[in-house]
Amino acid sequence: MLVLVVFCFVIAVPNVLAISGSDQAVTLNFFYGNRCPYCSKAEPFLDMLENKYPSLIVNRYEVYQNQDGQALLQKTALEHGVDMATLGVPIFFIGEDFLMGYGGETTTGNQLENLVKKYLKSGLSDIADSRYKTAISYLVEKKVVKGYSDGSFKPENSINRGEFLKILIEAKYPDQATGENCFSDVKDEWFAKYVCFSKARGIVKGYGDGSFRPASVINFAEALKMLTETFELTSNETGGQWYEQYANTAKANNFYLDGSEMSSLVKRGEMAEMVYRVQER
Q1: What is the mean pLDDT of the segment spanning 83-92?
Q2: What is the mean pLDDT of the chain?
Q3: Per-residue pLDDT reduced to its tens digit, 106-157
Q4: What is the CATH number of domain 26-122?
Q5: Computed over its alpha carbons, how large is the radius of gyration of the chain?
Q6: Long-range CB contacts (< 8 A, 24+ apart) of 74-77?
Q7: Which residues contact 212 (CB under 8 A, 6 or more apart)?
Q8: CA-CA distance, 11 to 221, in Å (whole number)?
Q9: What gap in Å lies between CA 89 and CA 73, rounded to an integer?
Q10: Measured between alpha carbons, how far is 59 from 246 in angstroms, rounded to an integer?
């Protein structure tokens, strides 16, 4: 973590605004105040970075007069472990790092550009210590999965049925998915072509009420069934419960994760590991 203190003010504000993102990109969040001289000094350098690195997105938030900007600043600062007693602008957040203050192009500017290059190179800011780093990096390279707009992957987050199925189909049948209106809750949404393609191939059947429930988080039993059916894997062993044959197939093909409980929710990192093992077996 890098910190440089050359700033204009300290502020305490309420925590009310959340951050979200969905597409892979490297994002730099810049918080500034109107008439803050150090903030104005940083603006031309940020413009240069945007022109130099087309994959970089710079979000600018004014905090002197904008209450939403103030709230977002405090939330982001708390998430990054900033000392709230010294919080001021300008401050820059990228991935898991932050820089506070701006001394010039040769000081803060160089540090900021190095962070940009770091995250552009790695692509994802939060997988270095993940046990699933190899699997995640493999699937990102194959363009099967993406990260979030803040440069993270969030390997500990859960994943829903629609998202999981999309990843399986892109891994096995890249750019082949088509279809819509195949379940009562699957019409023409982004996931429809993956769900309908899977239904046509017999990978999924849905529920007795005619729904698929794409937004429901997926557990290991469901995930192993979808993996087995998508990649057409078999095992000679069966079992009493409906999911046991899929667990046995996963074990026989080395994509069963030790310690997995069939009712436990699958995390994004675990999803990546299972798909990686199937493709690399």
Answers
A1: 95
A2: 87
A3: 999 999 999 988 777 656 778 878 999 889 988 887 888 877 767 789 999 9
A4: 3.40.30.10
A5: 23
A6: 74/12, 74/13, 74/14, 74/15, 75/15, 75/16, 75/17, 75/18, 75/19, 76/19, 76/29, 76/31
A7: 161, 162, 182, 183, 185, 186, 195, 199, 204, 206
A8: 49
A9: 10
A10: 45
Condensed to tens digits (0 to 9), the pLDDT of residues 147-199 reads 776 778 999 999 999 999 999 999 999 999 999 999 999 999 999 999 999 99
Q: What is the pLDDT, as a whole number, of residue 22?
A: 34
Q: Find the mean pLDDT for residues 50-75.
A: 92
Query: What three-state secondary structure class fits 265?
Result: strand
**What Å distances lie between residue 126 and 130, 143, 153, 167, CA to CA?**
8, 18, 6, 20
Residue 86 is given by DSSP the state: G
Cα–Cα distance for residue pair 160/165, rounded to 1 Å: 9
Question: Which residue, chain included where needed, has tokens 């270095």?
Answer: 128
pLDDT: is 28 or 143 the higher one?
Answer: 28
Length of the chain: 281
**Nearest partner of 156 among 20, 270, 22, 274, judged by Cα:** 270
CA–CA distance, 169 with 49 (Å, rounded to integer): 36
Sign, CA dihedral 216-220-225-231, equals positive
Element holding 92 (H helix, E strand) = strand 91-94
- pLDDT number for residue 188: 95
Instruction: Provide CB contacts within 8 A for 240, sequence distance 6+.
Output: none
Sheet holding 91-94, edge to edge: 56-62, 26-32, 91-94, 97-100
| All CATH 3.40.30.10 domain ranges in the chain, comma separated | 26-122
